Each structure stands twice: as C-alpha cells, then as structure tokens.
Amino acid sequence: MRIGILQAGHSPDELRETVGDYGEMFTRLLGGHGFDFEIFSVVDGIFPPDLDAADGWLITGSKYGAYEDHDWIPPLEQLVRDIRDKGQPLVGVCFGHQIIAQALGGKVEKFDGGWSVGRQEYDFGDEKMALNAWHQDQVTVLPEEAEVIASTDFCANAALVYGDQILTIQPHPEFTSELVAGLIEHRGRGNVPDALLSTATENLNTATDNARFAHRMAETLKKGAK
After folding, report:
1. CA distance 116 to 133
2. At residue 189, does pLDDT exceed 80?
3. Residue 64 and residue 41: Cα distance in Å, rounded?
4. What whole-number distance in Å separates Cα of residue 101 and Cα of residue 142?
5. CB atoms within 10 A of CB 202
6. Is 94 in the active site?
7. I need a surface site. Which of 39, 40, 105, 171 has the fewest CB within 10 A?
8. Where are the alpha helices (DSSP H) in the chain?
9. Is the pLDDT of residue 9 over 70?
C-alpha cells in the first residue's frame, strides 16, 4: 500500500544527520505495517501530481503556523479537501492536525496558555497514552464533522477523527527522546519557558506510547488498501 507523506517542515539542521527529516521519522515509525512511502516536501512547493500517487496520506509537523501566509498552505488545504472528498484515508500530526482542521472549517490559534513540550499523558477515554508534545498553536474551534477522541486539561482538542477516514493528533508519536532533547537545545532555549524545558528534560527517559499510537495510525491508513 502506498502512503504519501506530505512533509510540511524540516527537522533542525543540527539534528537532521542523526535523526533524519520529518518524513523519514514517519517511515521509521510506521515501518513493519506493510506500507511503501513517498515523501512530497510540500513546504518546498513539491506536491503530488494527483491523488492517484498514493492510497493514503499523512501530513507531518512543521515550525510554521497553519494560519501563516505561505504560498504552499492554500494548495495544501485544497489537497486536504480533495483527499476527504475522494474518500482516501488521511492522518495529520501536530501541524498536520491543525491544517486539516483549518482546511475543513475549524480554527487554529496561538494558544493563550502557552507551550506544551515533552512527554504528556493524553486521555482517550478508554485508555491513556503518553506522547511527546512540542507546540504552542492549538485547534480552538472544531470543524463540524470532527469528533474529539483525546484531550488533556491543557489541550482540549488533542486528537480528532472525521468519520473513519481521517485521524489527527496534536502531539508527536514520531518524536523520540533524542529528538526532543535536540529540540530543547536548538529550538527551545529562548523561546520556551525554562521551567517547561527543565520538566521536559527530566522526563526524557520516561517511556512513551509511540508504537501503540502508530498502530492506530496504520489502522486508519489501511482503510485505503486496494
């Protein structure tokens, strides 16, 4: 099954050689689920030629805001709507979670409550999952068709589904402790409050549920199997 990864940003230059770019992180996370991957760096204006280029789609994180004025954001929003209309499966993570909500009628804003970084526990109702977060923006108004499936006291709309076709999540199941440590060093200092960075550093070696959520992502993407 072919999965098109829509890469909406790049990992920090200082880390890319060791941890890879954002698209590569997802090929590792979802390895073993029977997928073939092609990465389209939409942040650089590289889009798939048409929807037949893949059976399912995934939108990565990004340092950019979904509400910012970049040439590649409007066509990415249209691509989201086209994927939805065609009935193909779609997964979005962090920025991907946000741009899908925005494209389908929701609202994304810089959250008044500030940042969420490092390991956080998310309430899925029937279970809890620990995943690494790195965001200040949040989905603050839901699209009509979205259903909340996970939240925290800090992030009310932490994971959403749109029927059984689209799954999105605010934290990063693809982020390892090594990557979070690198983000703390290279993107956190001077941007994120020191107290949050200290807590995130203390929790670097505490287990997360990346593999469990990856299984959930794979289940959604396999709805596009032919």
Report:
1. 6
2. yes
3. 14
4. 7
5. 11
6. yes
7. 105
8. 13-19, 22-29, 73-86, 95-103, 177-183, 194-202, 210-221
9. yes
Q: Which of 97, 135, 155, 172 is catalytic?
A: 172
Catalytic residue among 10, 147, 174, 219: 174
Distance CA 10, CA 57 (A): 18
pLDDT at position 18: 87
Active site residue 70: no
Q: Which helix (H) or strand (E) holds 11?
A: none
E-assigned strand segments in the chain: 2-6, 36-40, 56-59, 90-93, 107-110, 116-123, 128-135, 137-141, 147-150, 159-162, 166-169
Reported as a pLDDT band with limits 50, 70 and 90, residue 226 is: low
For residue 181, pLDDT beyond 90? yes
**Is 172 an annotated catalytic residue?**
yes
In this structure, the dihedral spanned by the alpha carbons of residues 60, 65, 69 and 70, taken in order and rounded to 10 degrees, is -20
Q: Exactly one of 17, 24, 94, 144 is catalytic; which is it?
A: 94
Opening angle at CA 168, ends 126 and 47, nearest 5: 160
How many CB atoms are located within 10 Å of the residue 208 CB? 23
Q: Is 54 exposed, middle or buried (0-12, 13-18, 19+ CB in 10 A)?
A: buried
- Looking at residues 99-120, what average pLDDT do you find? 96
